Amino acid sequence: MSVALNIDHANAPRPDTSGPVSLVGLSKSEIAARLGAMGLSERDSRMRASQLWNWIYVNGVTEFDAMNNIAKRLRADLAQAFVIDRPEIVSEQISIDGTRKWLFRFRDPSQPNMPPVEVETVYIPESDRGTLCVSSQVGCTLTCSFCHTGTQKLVRNLTAGEILAQVMMARARLGDFPGGTRPTDGLVPSGDTRAITNIVMMGMGEPLYNYENVKKALLIASDGAGLSLSKRRITLSTSGVVPQIEPTGREIGVMLAISLHAVRNDLRDVLVPINKKWPLEQLLEACRTYPGVSNAKRITFEYVMLKDINDSDADARELVRLLAKIPAKINLIPFNPWPGSNYVCSDWDRIEAFADIVNRAGYASPVRTPRGRDIFAACGQLKSETERLKKKDRDAFLL
Ligand code: SAH
Ligand code: SF4
């Protein structure tokens, strides 16, 4: 029987495992359950799971041998059954503005025969913070007409472990774990600030089409006994998967960003085609009722500036009118071109005029400075070379 690799199957459990299991991405209770299956008592399983959690997420340890509060024999057993998996770095590029882009290659240790996949992760340093832009899928099922990732078909969803491993690897590269060394080029925040203070799910893919894995990864990233990133410093961006917006607020509780980009349905149908399924009225209603939304926890509305497409004064006024009753921030993103793109970025004067209208309505600093354009790391420029599996390979793996 052959099965097509569509969105549903991209989420399906993969065939039975044959290699060690990666601990990164398992919840603490899942780790405890696996330890129980190895013969540890319930109490020991819980205690060891907490120790492993600390070694992995607080100390950034990748070898069981370094875990000096765990007996040698147990360490050896753990090393037989598990790995603390990190991706391979295919490339690391540094922009003249300090932005870094990594191409990571993931192999599933328990599925040695599955082909690897590659994803891009971007680090954007500022003087007082460092933001990591994390991918949720390899490619995207959606086809927003101005987005480079949208030209790459979905290869597969990333697992929770692979989403987290991007954070772990970036932290390791930036010397963000105890005993690590900061890069000496001065392009990470200074002082005691961690190199990575914020996470944005704005890399490749639509996070709400990989909801369960994204939820699991973000709950682990915000766990106070682990990576301990505040939920207020984690932002999930969606093109508008309306039914998943309420669960995102209720179950994950992170900040929300909406890729709005147009204020009329006819235009949004073209720019962000998911609008045909969930039009503006439904999207904005989901925002008005987003669990936890308040003036202190505003929703960010992203709006890409496309010359002569969505950048008129009338568009700006309509934008302000549409968002009037929603606690909102507006982020105007100058369009970042990519090879073969059909759009042009609005002229700077036009962006300023548009921003002025938005500003006068009370939204501060609405224009996002493009970062890392020289290394193709800016919004919407990410695309990996991992091809959608050829039908022959797909059948072989999903039989
Ligand atoms: N898929 C999710 C998150 C990733 S995209 C989403 O669409 O929200 C992150 C942001 O960059 C989105 O607002 C997206 O619309 C925007 N973007 C995509 N291509 C762009 C481009 N070429 N120039 C500027 N912004 C772009
Ligand atoms: Fe996918 Fe987001 Fe790009 Fe649209 S903008 S194609 S949803 S990654």
Q: What's the CATH H-level superfamily name of the largest domain?
A: Aldolase class I
| Regions with little confidence, pLDDT below 50 for 5+ residues | 1-16, 388-399
| Small-molecule binders | S-adenosyl-L-homocysteine, iron/sulfur cluster
Number of helices, counting only DSSP H or I runs of 4 residues or more: 12
CATH class of the largest domain: Alpha Beta
- Which geometry do the CA atoms define? elongated
Calculate the mean pLDDT score and round it. Answer: 89
- Residues in helix, %: 25-40%
Order of helices and strands: HEHHHEEEEEEEHEHEHEHHEHEHH
Examine the coordinates and then state which fold CATH places here, giving the name of the CATH topology of the largest domain: TIM Barrel
**CATH architecture descriptor text of the largest domain:** Alpha-Beta Barrel
Record the strand order, biggest sheet: 3-4-5-6-9-10-11-12-13
Q: Main sheet?
A: 9 strands, mixed
**How many strands in all?**
13
Using only C-alpha atoms, the radius of gyration works out to 22 Å
How many structural domains? 2
Distance between the termini: 6 Å
**Structural class determined from secondary elements:** alpha/beta
β-strand percent reads: 15-25%
Binding site for [4Fe-4S] cluster: 140, 144, 147
Pfam families: Radical_SAM (PF04055), RlmN_N (PF21016)
Domain Radical SAM core: 126-374
GO molecular function: 4 iron, 4 sulfur cluster binding; metal ion binding; rRNA (adenine(2503)-C2-)-methyltransferase activity; rRNA binding; tRNA (adenine(37)-C2)-methyltransferase activity; tRNA binding
